[in-house]
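INFO worker-7 received task bundle
INFO bundle size: 2
INFO processing item 0
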Amino acid sequence: MKVLCLHGKGTSGAIFRSQTSSFRSRLADQNIEFDFLDGPFECSAAAGVDLFYDPPYFSWWKNDTIDDVRAAVAQMNEYIAENGPYDAAMMFSQGCVLGSAALLLHQEETPHLPAPFKTAIFICGGPSMPVLEELGFHVSAKARERDVVSRNALTQQAGNSAILTQGTNRWMGLESLTGGLSEDQLRSEIECPLRIDIPTVHIYGSKDPRYAAGVHLSAICLPERRRIYNHEGGHEIPRGTQVSDSIADLVRWALAE
């Protein structure tokens, strides 16, 4: 089986390989080929990343515009055509934005063709707001506000200063804007004219400032074909035994669908 792996902004394929090593080691019996790509644009490190990983660092696009996202989707689809097919895509943060945009645009514009991949594993990432807008999704004003504020909160909570002074206690989420809303209430903030219809896995942490974005991404996928796991941490992939076992089990489920 082949899995396409899409890293977060300001990291790289090699960094994503390291970030996922704990749960991937539990999948050694699955005969999985993980293909870790680098984004096409070199950029500065994501907040906190340069404390642990050397450059280079990459991004999938320069600006969060619909044109840039579409260009990245087209480039990814070309890569898949040359190197696929892929049984799954595994994505983190900005990689989730790219993968979910590719699936939505495929479903809206080329549903007669096979999907870019058969199943999707989303880790700590949300959907593309520009893509949702273009496809006619209705996103509440509160959700739009939170999307902007959460990006700034992530930079602060994930940054070098927070890591060095607070360690794991730096992750405080964004309670001021989620206001104790349940996940079902957060999902109701998006009205969906269509949903991603392949099997999906959604892994996120309730202390992540981008937690609501991860819940929103689950909202645009079919409830009966999705699995959800809250690792209760921040914008990261924890490497503890219980979390790693749980994520590995979810990957097995996705690949068996």
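INFO item 0 finished
INFO processing item 1
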Amino acid sequence: MKEIEKCVQKAVMYDLLARYYQYRDPNKYMMYYQKHDECMKKLVEAKQEEREEERREREARFRVFHASANTPAIDVYVNGQKILQNLKYKQISQYLKVPMGQHRIDVYPAGQSEPIILSETLQVLPGLVSTLTVVGDVHKLQMLPLWDQPYAPYGKAKVRFVHLSPDAPAVDVALKDGDVLFKNVSYRQAADYIEVPVNEKLSLDVRVAGTNNVALSVPNIRFYPNKSYTIAAVGYVSRTPSLEAILIEE
């Protein structure tokens, strides 16, 4: 039986006893009245905690990842209010709480009130955890929402791969001299999460899809238990800044 149900039963019992002794025994009346009052206070506190838990479940979280290699630092506004400033390429913000509903996300050059270089409307669902990724070239920016899964099974780690390089072909991601982990991932695509070995140094190769041509090597990467990760490929193949992989903890 839940504690709250036990508390309700006790409150009812103490109320009946207090009523019974009200005109028979003042001392017992006061004792049971005080016990009833204590139970009622606990019930009120439990209800407040329940409401707070419901509010937290309705509340969503998002963060912003600046993944546009040729875009200067940015400021980010939500519904006209600045929430992030001077976010530079390859930087990612902390998760921010946001109520469910529709929100306008505007991106400006850092320190400037105009022009808007990116504007999107985001529909936030209850409990949603996401990374809003600013991608593309500076004159053709886009916002790519990634739906995060920040919790991993106990003792295990999981990771996904997201392709954010505008001029790179579709790629496979494989263990060096080993199995392919993510296959044929194109620009602006995020592969599904997979479980990976923990507390081991691993080396990965990002290959042109369907070939053994290595576009990028990622040496000595380590995943820790109870954590969830994203590996993001950013930058350019044909110009600077060059292609690289960023490991992001969720």
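INFO item 1 finished
INFO post-check item 1: The first strand starts at residue 60 and ends at 66.
INFO post-check item 1: Residues 151-250 form a domain with the Immunoglobulin-like fold (CATH 2.60.40).
INFO worker-7 idle
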